[in-house]
Amino acid sequence: MISRHEALPRIAKLTVLGVGVALLATACSGTSGTPTSSGSSSAAAGGISCPAPSSGAGAGASPVGTTVAPANVPKATTVSPAPLKIGSLLPQTGALAFLGPPEIAGVNLAVKQVNDAGGVLGHPIDVVHRDSGDTTTDIATQSVTNLLGQGVSAIVGAASSGVTKTVINQITGAGVVQFSPANTSPDFSTWPAHGLYWRTAPSDVLQGRVLGNYMASCGAQTLGMIVLNDSYGTGLRDNVKKAFESAGGKVVDEELFNEGDSQFSSQVDKVVAAKPDAIAVISFDQAKQIIPLLTGKGVKPTQMFFVDGNTSDYSKDLSAGTLSGARGTIPGTFAKDDFKTALKTIDPSLKDYSYAGESWDAVNLISLAAEEAKSTKGTDIAAHLQDITAGSEKCSDFASCVTLIRQGKQIHYYGKSGPVSFAKNGDPQEAYIGIYKFDDKNVPQPVSEEYGKLS
User: Fold this and answer.
1) Are the beta carbons of 327 and 72 closer than 8 angstroms?
2) Where are the alpha helices (DSSP H) in 65-198?
């Protein structure tokens, strides 16, 4: 069952992913979605009409269950020998650096609020930030070595699935929790991580199918893709393709590029030559170079679709109107105004909010699991992460949840990213995917939220 803003009339429900995700609702003026037998459509034709934004979009998740003020939290019944120390491995440099500020702000806001409520097991928690870089460097490995040397119990990050693959064995092999707010590669669902790898972002099985169906629902019959050749890009591509073709569309071209590449003319030329109705760009900040090449070939912004790695604020990078009407998807609910305001007390320059909620949730979940475990040891924390998303008492912030735990109650945490229910492999079993539309300033604005289950 879907819970979403009602701006979009529905033609089908988003079903459990084992069965597949149905077409998203549409009020398209395009064709029925059955591919033509000829290559008559062109990239410049732009026969696409996606649903209009909702006036209420962006509300995000509301607090649920018990609410307790930080000053009213009862004292810890168990005091740990040393404070809980959390590291962050988030992008300060590299192709995903634009995601760093909201993720780091989410971590720091959560740490402040946990400490305002008295901390964990009788102590304020500590946080140590280190850069993840990207897969073109060895920064992540060096950062992890530094964090492990400082005795962290858990590490929030990395944002990039490709980066996580370079350090996951190093982290989990040391008995430390790795908790990513943004990893979406399906590969981690079966990774042998000793029960120590967790994430608040859903697998790209969900985002890929939502995006693939959304493009079809907008009237696109043919699709071209420009894809980053790593686990994130190709995994997302596969799920987009499967959904689009299941909806009756045809993928007419797929062009890959590698991390570190700076020239994309060949990929753009080949995709445009295939004359697709829609073009999906699955990348990180390489989109800044790819977008002008596409528009230079006559591709309209309404034909362009983006993903969480590049659905970002391009107001300072592209001429006004370049992306007006383009669409993108980002896992998670839309950030509420009060959450944005709180984040800006941490980072006043913040403009993007992607994965801020997931990062905030990661710190809260680690802290609450430590409280329930009565331990700051990584393996003990990991053993309780599923428990705190499966209880009967709903709560949505640290102060409220830790009060229930100290009262001996079983909690079900509901965070800024939406409801959280973990499988044993550390995957969230339910999630929202936000759909965004770029305005005349090239800034993505919320359109609708799609809810689905991965179990």
Assistant:
1) no
2) 100-116, 139-149, 161-173
- Pair 326, 211: CB distance under 8 Å: no
**Helix (H) or strand (E) run with residue 214 in it:** helix 204-217
Backbone angles phi, psi at 250, to 5 degrees: -135, 130
Note the pLDDT tens digit of each residue in 214-257: 999 999 999 999 999 998 999 999 999 999 999 999 999 999 99
Q: How far is CA 314 from the centre of its chain?
A: 19
163: closest CA among 75, 100, 226, 80? 100
Half-sphere exposure of 27 (CA within 13 A, CB side): 7
On the question of a cis peptide bond just before residue 243, with omega within 30 degrees of 0, the verdict is: no
What Rg value do the Cα atoms of the chain yield, rounded?
Answer: 22
pLDDT, tens digit (0-9, with 9 covering 90-100), for 56-86? 444 345 567 879 999 999 999 999 999 999 9
With residue 235 as reference, give the H or E element that holds it. helix 231-246
**CA nearest to 42, candidates 278, 260, 257, 241:** 278
Angular region, 316: left φ>0, alpha ψ -120 to 50, beta rest = alpha
Amino acid at 321: G
> Tokens representing 292?
């002008």
Polymer length of the chain: 455
Please report, for residues 170, 176, 228, 345, the alpha-carbon distance to residue 197 in angstroms, rounded to integers and kept in the order given.
12, 9, 24, 30
Cα distances from 103 to residues 97, 276, 363, in angstroms, run 10, 35, 11
State how far the Cα of 320 lies from the Cα of 422, in Å rounded to an integer: 42
CA distance 412 to 390: 5
